[in-house]
Specification:
Elements lengths: L3 H9 L2 E13 L2 E9 L7 E2 L2 E3 L6 H13 L5 E8 L9 E10 L13 E8 L10 H18 L13 H12 L5 H11 L2 E8 L7 E6 L11
Parallel strand pairs: 1-6
Antiparallel strand pairs: 1-2, 1-4, 2-3, 2-7, 5-6, 8-9
Length: about 230
């Protein structure tokens, strides 16, 4: 026989499932994250783009949907981060959120604000406002994971255009790690791990002679010790 107490507890349970996306990019040598300005409830506060999972989709599909809704992109680096389940993380309901982080290139990104929000914009990770719910904590966790990920994988490909200079690549690493890297040592290490291939094209960088353009030899996940 089933336990009446257990049945009663199940009948009362009302837990909502959501996803929140930490969408990162690098602009002008700085790390940015995409935020939305809330319209209902917590009006005027900034938060990570996210929402409840639809009955017909998986958690991963919901994260992909939100990424495409906000940026128009769907074929970029997206990885599950962590599930945040503190009972008081949402003041209006019991909501468990699975966070993801995405990496997208800055070039030619046209943000697509949803009618659900008052605004959507890029914020420097080092100068975030007070965010709704537990989103400051989520961003901090995502930033730490990103530092680890960029140090031992080829994930940087998703933050760069198809073709790029070594200087542009180094700026991506410096923005995420928040420190200057020795140019000579960085280029030796990149050459040693074999992540890139030359394109036979060049690009003007300031008053210097044209710089060689490179591309990643593969966008498949690869474990490499870069930093």
């Amino acid at each position: 026989m089933s336990n009446p107490t257990v049945q009663a507890e199940h009948a009362k349970q009302n837990i909502k499932l959501a996803v929140d996306n930490c969408i990162f990019t690098v602009k002008d040598g700085k790390l940015f994250i995409l935020l939305i300005k809330m319209k209902s409830k917590l009006q005027g506060m900034w938060a990570l783009p996210g929402g409840l999972i639809k009955d017909t989709e998986t958690i991963g599909a919901a994260a992909q949907r939100i990424l495409k809704q906000e940026t128009g992109l769907s074929d970029n680096y997206l990885e599950q981060l962590y599930t945040f389940s503190q009972p008081n993380r949402d003041p209006f309901a019991r909501v468990i959120s699975t966070a993801y982080f995405a990496l997208i290139p800055d070039a030619n990104i046209e943000l697509k604000p949803s009618p659900k929000y008052d605004d959507v914009r890029w914020y420097p990770v080092k100068k975030l406002p007070e965010l709704a719910y537990d989103h400051n904590h989520i961003v901090k966790y995502a930033k730490q994971r990103l530092e680890w990920k960029i140090s031992y994988t080829n994930a940087a490909w998703s933050l760069l255009p198809e073709k790029f200079t070594l200087t542009e690549l180094q700026k991506v690493y410096e923005a995420i790690l928040n420190k200057k890297l020795d140019k000579r040592n960085f280029r030796k290490k990149i050459d040693k791990v074999g992540l890139l291939k030359e394109t036979k094209q060049t690009k003007l960088e300031g008053a210097h002679r044209p710089a060689k353009l490179y591309e990643f030899s593969s966008k498949k996940k690869k474990i490499v010790e870069i930093i």
